[in-house]
Structures are given as C-alpha cells and as structure tokens.
Fold:
Amino acid sequence: MRRFFLPVALGALIFAFWLNPSVQDIAAGVAIFLFGMLMLEDGFRLLSGGLLERILQASTRSTPRAVLFGTVSTALLQSSSLVSVITISFLSTGLISLIGGVGVIFGANIGTTTGAWLVAGLGLKVNIAAFAMPMIALSIVLVFQKAKPLRGIGYALAGMGFLFLGIHYMKVGFDSFNDEIDLARFAMEGVAGLVVFSLIGAVATVIMQSSHATMTLIITALAAGQITYDNALALAIGANIGTTITAIIGALSANFQGKRLALAHFIFNTLTAFVALVLIVPLRELVDWISAALGIGAADYALKLAVFHSVFNLLGLALMLPALTPLIEFLTRRFPRPRLDISEPHFLSDAVDAFPETLEAALRKELVHLYENAAGILLKGLNLNQQQVYDSEDIPALVRASREAVEIDMDAAYEQRIKTLYAAIVDYATHIGSDDQHPERIERIHALRDVASDIVQAVKSVKHLRKNILHHTTAERGAVTGIYDDLRAEIARIVAEIRLLGQTPPEQRSALWLDQERATVEDRARHTTQKVDALIRARHLSAADATSFLNDSGYAFAAMRDLIEAARSFYIERDPAIAAVEHLVSLDLEEMHETLKGDAPP
Amino acid sequence: MGLKKLTEKLAAYFERLETGQTHEIKPDHVRKVLEKLHAKEAELRDRLARAETDEKRAHLQQKLQVTQEHISRAEYLLTAIERAD
Structure:
C-alpha cells in the first residue's frame, strides 16, 4: 500500500497541475503553509530553551491547568502535533501523569481552533502577503545569528511569514480557480453531504498530516465560494477525525503511554465529531446566534466556520471533562503497563528520541534502574542478600552470618541485566548529546554516561572476586575468611549508603555525605597491606592466600571507588552555584585525615 | 592545616569569578547548604543514639565529625561571601 502511495500522490498532483494551473498555486500554498508550521515549531524549540518543558511539568498538576497549557501552547505554536509529541515524551519518561497528558491533548484541540480564527479573521481580510515578505526577509538575518534566542525568533518569524504566504497562495489559487471551474456544483445536501464531505475532510487531513492545513484550505475555498457552507462544516468535522488517524499511526510504534494518549485523542475527536454530526442543525443555529452576537455578518461564512470549529471542540471538552476519570480507567485497562523486563531500558525509548529535552530526566531514571540491577548482582556476587543488606543495622554481623552460597552466574547476569542497559545509555547519551543542545546540558548528559560506566566497572570488579569469595566465605577458614568478610562488608555498606542517599529527599541530599565514605575506603585500602603482613607474620595466612587476597582487594577497592564516584556524580547538586559551595566545603583526603586525627577507623 | 586549603580554594574561586568562569555564589546558596548540613547533623545524632554496636557507633561518630567540619567550613564561607557581596 505504502509503496504505491508516493507515485500515486505525485502522479495525481502532476495530472492536476496539467489539468488546471491554478491547482499549482493551491498546492504550493499548502506546501508553504506546512513548511511554515515546521519552521514555527523549530523556532519555538530554540526559543523556549527548556521553558516549555518546565511549564508543562508545572501545568499538569491539575486538569484545568493541563487543559489551559494545551490550549495556550497550541495556539502559540499553531501546531497540536508538537504539543502531542512533547506530551508523549513526558508521559513516556514518567515526568507527567496520564490524566495530565490527556488534559493537555484536550486543550490542544481547543488551541487548534485559533488557527481557523487566524485564517478567517486575518488571512482573508488583510493582504497578509504584504506582511509575509518582510517577515521572511527579516527572519533570515536572525536565523544566521549565533545566539539561540535570536535564531529561535528568526525561525518563528519565518514560520509565521511562510504561514501567511501559504494562505495567500491558497487564496490566489482558489480565486483564479473561480474563473475556470466551479467546484460548488459538486456540493451535496443532507445526510449524504455530511457523510461524504466529512470523509473528504478526514482523508485530506491524513494526506496533509495537519488538520490546521486542512482547515485553512477549507476556509480559503469557502471564502472563494468553491464549497458551500454546509459542506465546509462537514469538512471541518472530518478534519478533526483525520487528525486522530495521524496520531494513531504515530502511536503504533509508541509505548503503552503513547497508545493510551492516542486512544484518548481518538475518543475525544470521534465522539465530538459524532455529536456534531448528530446535532448539526442546532449547532448551526447556535453558530448563527453567536456570530450575530459577535457582530459577524450573516454572509461571512469563513468566520462563521471558525465559530463552528470552536463551538464543536468546546462541546467535546464539555462532554469529555466530566468523564475524565472513567476515561483514564478505561485507557489504563485497555493498555495495561507491560510487565517490566529488568534487562531492558524502561525510560529510554523512541519517545525520548522524538523530544530530546526529556533525555536528561530519562537517563537519570535509567541510571537508577541500572544501579538497582548492579547492586543486586554485586551483593549476590558477594554471597549476600540484597534486602537483608538494606534492612540491616549491623552489616558486618550480617556478612559474618552469611555463609550460604548464593547462586548467580556473574557472566550471564552481566550480559542480561547490565550490558543491554549500559549500551542503551551510551547510545542515547552519545547520539542525542551530540545534537545542537545547551552546552551545559551536554556536559551533564556526558557526566551521566560516565556514572553508568563507573557502575559497570564496579560490577566487573566484583566479577573478578566471585571465585575466591565463594571459596573463602562459604565456610569458616580462619583469618582468610575474616579479611574477605571485611571486604564484603565494606562493599555492602557502600551499596547501602548509596541507597540511603537515593532515598533522601533531594532538598536534603548532598554529595558531601560521601566525603567520609571516600576517606574510609582510602584509609582501609592503605591499611589492608599492613593487616595482611601482620597475618602472614603471625602465620594465620599463607603467602598464596595473601597474594590472591591482595589481588582481590585491589578489585574490591576499585569497585568501592567506582560506586562512590558514580553516586557523587549522580547526586551532585544541580544548581551550579550550590554545587560550587559544596565543592568549596568538601574535604580532600588530607583534610579528612586531619579532621579524624586520632580517630582512625577500626 | 585548618582552613588553609579552603582559603586557597576560595581565592581560586574569586579569580575564576572575575573572569566569568564560574557561577556566582550568593549568601543564600551557602545558607541552603548549611541547612542541609544541620539536618544531616541531626539525623546522624539520631542514628548514633540508636546504634547497637561499637563498630556502627564509631562509624557514625566519624561521619558526625566530618559533617561538623563541613558546617564550620560553610560558616566560614558564608562570612567570606557576605563580606564580598
């Protein structure tokens, strides 16, 4: 089907151009309009610099706020598709709730109605091409500037200019069309007209991938008298259905949250369209009444269509808002959260790819997932039970009591629970981090990639220990068991401390808490050789066991350093000024020993 | 050694600040860190009171000492930043 679509579409366009040259103006107008929408999107992305995302997070805390955000952002961007993409990305990474996301999508439907007002109110009444040209010319100067906000303004201005130019060409096309062909003779009345023109509106929107472009085309054709008002109403209803088909196609490859949102969008638009079709006669009368109240002329069908578009979308909102809670329950039942496979990334998905601004948040969540997997493997590798370690008030005693061999194939566990996740983190951090983003964000993303590397190195280090841990700690073998127990306890303590740090509320958390852990590790690493020497001299340890242990302790302390470094980088204060304070206040190893002088760790 | 290294670090910070290579620290930033440190101190005291083994007590005691050192450094920093502000 898809194979034939492109040649058929191109062929049909060329045939239409040959049949009537005015079609070229209309088609070019649509193309320029769509191009303008893309530029407007790019402009706002550059301009917002994360503002849009921050507002989105804050505005989805209540349904009215979410609806308002969807309405205002779509009206500003003149594109509900960008708002949908951002919403799906945020929903997929768990940054907003489903109810908030659905609220935004409902609001976006209201926001799209501003496009019809813009075209009918301004586009057809004023010679907007006269504004378009200087806008495009001025924008190009700004687009070549280095500063992102200026480039953003340039793209947005160019986008607006192209939107205006597109409307102008559509208008010119339909005006010259009038001299040759009268499409109005294909007008259909009654139920047949409603059904056929709704279908045409839906198909046109699927082809153009934009209900906004379809509405503009409908309004310009209506103003040129190429379609009747009744048929234009049906086309507008069809455009609302068509836009959901685009969303559904997009959601086929999305995760369960994307599917839930697409279904909510489909239900909203289909129900609204159905109600509008059924109530077309009273709605038409209501539009006439509102138009008269607003001072819109009885024959100004373009503006009346804009009123109709707003009225029936508001009607949809009024119908759906009271049913929001059952709708959310239905969506959750229809697309349940799939059972999470701990070996697969949970937060890094195509949705992040579609909107890279969510990458940092998704990466942070994925790192916690990687750390949880790593902690489980590390502790099992040390013959310890993860939950018991987390619950323990006395880790050294727990370690001494843990003499049962815990079954784990370290290589298989690494392949299954670490490697895929690590690969996904590196992949996303590298390919999205290299895009044109804020340099400080790129630095933070690369720092997060290094956190993943430290966690992975810690697991690899413990893999080296596994054989001797199994041999020396599953039975009481004297001094050698004691020194291996010390290593196990030290690693377990650090894993537990990092977990505690993760559970501390962010406003109370500081990477400074790890200063002392770092000092303890270095202190113990230094004393290990002296301890082993003493055990050899006292003949409690054979030279062979001592060599193996010193080798293993090297791996163990490397794992501890990697874990502390990973936690320190991960939990570093995100406000750069506070991070600078913490850097100044932190103690280096020499200062730490000075502080703890005469109070060396046991 | 005392606060010698902190003084050196602080001098380096002011140098970087003059050349625009670092973010400016305001007294409020230091106060926020101090708030976290005092909360940590209270938490450690609480954990210390509940600790059941000597080893755990010794470890928590060290943590407390380090946190108290952080507090005295942050207080010194606050005075320095307030003077410079």
Summary: The mean pLDDT of chain B is 86. The longest helix of chain B spans residues 54-84. Chain B touches chain A through 38 residues (CB under 8 Å).
